[in-house]
Structure formats: structure tokens, C-alpha cells
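ok so for the tutorial part 2 we go from a plain amino acid sequence to predicted C-alpha cells. step 1 is just haveing the sequence, like this:
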Amino acid sequence: MNQSRLTLGILGGMGPHAGLRFCELLLQLSIDRYGSKRNADFPHFLLSNLPVPDLISSREDEERTVTMVEAEAKRLEVAGAELIVLACNTMHLFEERFRSAIAVPFLSIIDAVMKNVQRDGRKTVGLLGSMTTMQSTLYSAPLQRAGIELILPSPAEQEELTRCVQTIVAHQVGDEERALLRRQMESLHEKGAEAVILGCTELPQILTPDTSGIPVYDSLRILAEAACAAMYFPSSISSCD
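step 2 — the prediction. this is what the C-alpha cells look like for a chain of 241 residues:
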């Protein structure tokens, strides 16, 4: 086992269950791909479960939230993190501020997803996420540069999805939320989407590749794969950062 692996700092807490799932993914990937079988072989990571204001319902506290995340990224670096990830798509709107706040590499969830979409040669993809993510250029800009068409839910569907995300963050998921996500997946597929990006790290809690019916890009799993590779093989960071 590579003993020079890096210590990872994880910014979570937006909502908190995504950060916990990210840790589980890291551990499983370390076993499946890197043969971690002893305590000494498991990845070293630091999780910050930062309770920030809810930006899904309102962006009134946006600046305070971003400032909190910047400070927490610095705190993780001081604590020994040699690599930072953020287990939230929406907050990547402020990626450059987080990069500027630290001296260690920051792995982008957007870049990691885009590498997978381009690798698969997709021509059209759908996107499910928070209202802010869907209405921003987080994914639309890099997809456009790559010549890939982005298909979004209708405005009414985006409102429904936002309420669904809030329910998932509150950990109050039921059959209604699962049915809604399946309907929206089918709707995007009918509009021509070859696959769908799960652009909210909470969505994979109730929608998996096995239950979706069409190919999905689980942004949290994809980030975990990129982070795990960078931890065990630091020389790969230049191609992920």
C-alpha cells in the first residue's frame, strides 16, 4: 500500500448526510480499488460537518455562508488537510474564493463530473439539483464549452425538485419524493437526455443507478472517486485540480 497518501479535508454539512455518505464512499473505494484491509491502509480524512444557513430556501445569508466555508477550509488546512473537497454542488459557485483561501489543492466536483460526461461521449445530459444550481452556469457553462446540450426540468418541475431537496436535507424522505424524482428523470429522458447529472449531493440518497432507469452521474460518488485517487496517488492531482 502507498504510504505517502494524502490527508483529505472534507467540507460537509450542507446538508450533513451528504458528508457522511462521502466518508462511506471513500472507505468502500479504498477497499474495492486500493486493497485497504488493515487500519493502517485506510484513507486519512478530516470531516467538518459545518452547520451553515439554508441557501436552498433563501440566498439572504449567502455572504455569511461563504465566509463560514472559507474559514472552515482554512481550519481543515491548519488541522493537517493536504487536499480539500466540498460535498455540495451549489457552493461550488464560490469555488474560486475557497481555492484562494487555502494553500493546498481543492478538487472540484464540477470538474470531476465533467470529465466523466466527456469520457462517455455524451451529446445531451439532463440536470437535477437545487434551484440555484439549475439556474446558474455551474454546469451549463462547462457543458456548453464541451459542445454538450443541457436539458433542464420545467420551471414548475424545478420548484417541485427544490421542495424535494429540502425534504431530503431534513431526512424526511418517503415514497412521494422517490416517485417525484423518477418522474423527473423520465421527463428529462423523454426530452432527449441520454443521461442525468445528479447535481445535488443529497439526491443519491433516494435515487441510485439501479433505480433510475437511465444512466446517472452521481456527483458525490464521482467526487469520492477523484479524491480517493488523489489521496493514494498524489501525482494525479494536477489532472483533477
